[in-house]
Structures are given as structure tokens and as C-alpha cells.
């Protein structure tokens, strides 16, 4: 079993209201010095078998169609070692 | 005309949309997200709500439902399609319209009677209005902030594809006060405010929204 991870983040030029809300809370909790927070999503896809280039290509296609919206988000794909 | 109104799991405004279709002088046909055919309708409304719980992104999962495969194909052949609120989000996710809708810049859900200016009255859904006409309809959204990159916004403006614009305070941070846009052909319209909630004086801010539902008939008989 292997885990393929897809990290999705809002593009840097896109307003991230959720990140802004989190950022606004930090000073109230006494965390100083943080100038920005951006919030994304992490998908963990469990695959039964070896993660070949073909499997990675499938995940990349999935990440670019369903898991992220390329108009507002960027994504990265990587494989994590079996746990 | 027969106008299909699609219900997805989590749709809220399908009943109001069907009622608006009937008051507008057309026949409403209920369509289900799992349908593989459009039951012979002449046009389709994608109503507001929270389809598939807004999971992943608003409209992201609905885009891949069986009925949307049919709607996307029919829209590309010229069938009129109106997406309201969540329907607008679905049209953007389907790439039938450019851009995307993200969370309101002020982070709050907004529910107001909203003044709009009809900028383009040549679409299948807005021909009952005068160009520049101002109307008041309900606006209610949490993720109604329309965004696109600058070249796309310039293209939409240059080609007259901004259908409606917010008048007064911008209620959600939408770029260039955009409330609705259309595709190149003018048959697909996405609109964040809700004209279907403004078709009867008793239950809305007036009847200014009715034009979206009478435009279809005007187009046919014109």
C-alpha cells in the first residue's frame, strides 16, 4: 500500500479569506510576528500496489480536474512511504 | 417552452425556480442529478443551494454528475442554460463560463435586496430587459466573490459579456462589481443573485426578476 498526497493551495494572487480569518486570531492568542496565513487542502490517496509513473500521471490528472480548480488553485503531488 | 430545473442533493431553490419558470409563462420540468437525458427540454435552470454539501469546492462535484454531462453537451450546441448562485458556481466549474467564485471578501454570509444593472440584454435570459435597466432582486451567498485574471476580465468587458453588475456597495468583493456573465454565444448565463425570488410582490422585493424567465418566450416569438 502506498499513499499519494495531493496538496492544494490557493494561488498566491487569490484572496484567501479563511487564511485571513486565522491570521486575525493569532495576535489575540499571543502569537506575534506572523504576517500571513494561507489555508489549503491535503488529499491522501491510498493505492493498492506500486505507484508507477502511470499511477502518478493518473493522480496528476485527477488533481487538475476534480481535486483542484486551476483558475484559483495550484497543486503538488508526491508519494509518501508506506507506514 | 419546456424548461428543465435540476435538483442535486443539497439544492435549495429548485421549487422557487420551477415556480418562476411557470409564472414566466413556460413549463417547468423536474430533472434529477442522476438523469442521463434532459427529457426533451428546450432550456435548463441550475438553481441555487449547496449541491453535494459544497464539499471540495462549490459546484466541483456537481460538475461531474450524469445530468451535467448532458447539460454541458446541450449548452455547447446552443441550448439556453441559466445558473443561479450555486448554479453559477457549477457553470464555472464546468468551464462553460470563465472565472471562479470564492468566499466573500468580508467572510460573512450576505442576504439582502440587491440593486443590479443589466449590462447585456441580448442573451437568451435577459432580452426582456432594457440595456442599462436597474432591477432589485434577492442576493444571498457566502461564496459569491467572482474572480478571474485581468486578461479574462478585460475580455469579458470587451466582448460585452458582463450581463449584470452590482449597483451601490459591492456585496461580496466581486471583481469589477460583476454579478453575472455570459458565454461567447449568449446562451449560457451565470448569475449570483436570485431573480427567481423576485417574481411575486408577496414574497420578494418586487417582480424585477421575472424578466429572466420571460426572456425565453420573447426570444422564440421575436
What is the total tally of β strands of chain B?
Answer: 11
**Major sheet size, sense and barrel closure of chain A:** 3 strands, antiparallel
What is the top-level CATH class of chain A? Alpha Beta
Question: What global shape of chain B is seen?
Answer: globular
Structural class of chain A: alpha+beta
Average pLDDT for all residues of chain B? 96
Q: How would a textbook summarize the main sheet of chain B? A: 9 strands, mixed
Number of helices of chain A: 2
- Our measurement of the CA-to-CA distance between the termini of chain A, rounded to an integer number of angstroms, reads 9 Å
Largest sheet strand order of chain B? 2-1-3-4-11-10-9-6-7
Q: At the third CATH level, what is the topology name of chain B?
A: Rossmann fold
Radius of gyration of chain B: 15 Å
Going by CATH, the architecture of chain B would be: 3-Layer(aba) Sandwich
Helix fraction of chain B, binned, reads 10-25%
Whole-angstrom Rg of chain A: 16 Å
Percent in strands of chain A: 25-35%
| CATH class bucket of chain B | Alpha Beta
How many discrete structural domains of chain A?
1
What does this molecule look like?
The complex is a heterodimer of chains A (83) and B (222). Chain A has 83 residues and is an alpha+beta fold. Chain A contains two helices and three strands; from the N terminus they run βαβαβ. Chain A has helices at 17-25, 53-67, and strands spanning 2-10, 41-47, 73-80. Chain A has a three-stranded antiparallel sheet, with helices on one face. Chain A is elongated. Chain B is α/β, with parallel strands linked by helices. Chain B contains five helices and eleven strands. Chain B has helices at residues 14-23, 66-76, 86-93, 150-158, 211-221, and strands at 2-7, 27-32, 43-46, 81-84, 100-102, 110-118, 134-141, 145-147, 162-166, 178-182, 188-191. Chain B has a nine-stranded mixed sheet, sandwiched between helices. Chain B starts with a strand and ends with a helix. The mean pLDDT of chain B is 96. Chains A and B meet through α1 of A and loops of B.
